[in-house]
TrEMBL record:
It comes from the Bacteria. It holds the Pfam family ABC_tran. SMART domains: AAA. SUPFAM superfamilies: P-loop containing nucleoside triphosphate hydrolases. This is ABC transporter ATP-binding protein. Signal peptide: none annotated. Keywords: ATP-binding, Nucleotide-binding, Transport. The keyword Nucleotidyltransferase does not apply. One of its GO terms (molecular function) is ATP binding. PROSITE patterns: ABC_TRANSPORTER_1, ABC_TRANSPORTER_2.
Length: 249
């Protein structure tokens, strides 16, 4: 063997079992809203690696850029500058159907702005992502029921979402996030609207999914105790990471 061959860089296999490989990496993200006098730089150079299987809290004051970062990480919004890599793949190459496909297959969302449809049943709400993914009727029902049962909501499947308690609604949201077998769950203030006991139950569910199924958690929160339960905390101030592990350049 030529001695130089030993210097060939190691490539990281991005398998689910490999908990050290970054599933998501971002480099030098910038996000600007508006223009002219209304221009606002919400992200100003954020780099971060998220490894498969870890739990990360994104913390910072209101308006610091947490939700903006989460939306860019989750491929719901594009950065003005910078790169998002999913499994080492530059996501700029993903558009339209392939982008939607990658997002649906890989991510689950627990966001307050993704409301449940109150007039539909818990089961119908959980079925929706599977409908979008083109899963057949029978498999949709089975998988959605399965997810609801996992969240101990099997007996509420036929109840309209509007008739459920706050904690039950949030569990339906988690069931809906789980139904596509995601590798990452993004949660924006998942306990924000819940009383502390119910919030704790919802947290326990998220961390059990992390521990038992290896689902990566990315959680935006104001809640210090919730942040403390995560493997790692990323502090954001005025659109930059001020504390927490920065990715290697
Ligand atoms: N669509 C938008 N247009 C203009 N400004 C926005 C928009 N979205 C967010 N911002 C501004 O960007 C900053 C960061 O917002 P956001 O990421 O929602 O903060 P956080 O989630 O930390 O409270 C805030 O000052 C907010 O007003
Ligand atoms: Mg926010």
């Amino acid at each position: 063997m030529h001695p130089n061959q030993e210097e060939t860089p190691v490539t990281y296999p991005a398998t689910v079992e490999d908990r050290s490989a970054p599933i998501l990496s971002v480099r030098d993200l910038h996000k600007t809203y508006g223009r002219g006098p209304n221009r606002f730089d919400a992200l100003r150079g954020v780099s971060l690696d998220i490894r498969e299987g870890e739990s990360i809290a994104i913390v910072g004051k209101s308006g610091s850029g947490k939700s903006t970062l989460m939306h860019v990480l989750a491929l719901l919004d594009q950065p003005s500058e910078g790169t998002v890599f999913l499994d080492n793949q530059d996501t700029r190459n993903l558009r339209g159907k392939r982008l939607n496909g990658a997002r649906n297959k890989t991510f689950g969302f627990v966001f307050q702005q993704f409301f449940l449809t109150g007039s539909q049943t818990a089961l119908e709400n959980v079925t929706l992502p599977l409908k979008i993914a083109g899963v057949g009727r029978r498999a949709r029902r089975d998988r959605a029921m399965n997810a609801l049962e996992q969240l101990e909501l099997g007996d509420k499947a036929k109840n309209k979402a509007i008739d459920l308690s706050g904690g039950q609604k949030q569990r339906v949201v988690i069931a809906r996030a789980l139904v596509n077998d995601p590798r990452i769950i993004f949660a924006d203030e998942p306990t924000g609207n819940l009383d502390s006991n119910t919030g704790r139950v919802v947290e326990d569910i998220l961390f059990a999914l992390n521990r038992e199924q290896g689902i990566t958690l990315v959680i935006v929160t104001h809640d210090e105790e919730l942040a403390a339960r995560c493997d790692r905390r990323i502090h954001i101030r005025d659109g930059v990471i001020v504390d927490g592990e920065q990715a290697a350049a």
